[in-house]
């Protein structure tokens, strides 16, 4: 039972990682942290100077999860 759930999670993560890494280059660490935040139902604050792709990252994250995205 647990093995089946872990296999499902691994499959989901593989798809997520493939989706995100194909759209965002060089963001492996934040992509992992976004996934962890999703799994623990936590929050994440993306900070940084303009032009780093924070908005694009969140758009692709929402796209993978079939969610809508809008800035506040």
Give a brief description.
By secondary structure, this protein is mostly helical.
Any overview of this molecule?
The protein is mostly helical and 72 residues long. It has one domain (2-64). It has helices at 2-23, 28-39, 54-64. The model has no long low-confidence stretch (mean pLDDT 94). The chain has 3 helices and no strands. Helix 1 packs across helix 3.
SSE blueprint:
Elements: H1 2-23, H2 28-39, H3 54-64
By DSSP (H or I, 4+ residues per run), the number of helices equals: 3
Distance between the termini: 41 Å
Taking all Cα atoms into account, the compactness measure Rg is 13 Å
- Listing every helix as H and every strand as E from the N terminus to the C terminus, the arrangement reads HHH
Class by SSE composition: mainly alpha
Tags for this model:
72 residues; 3 helices; mainly alpha
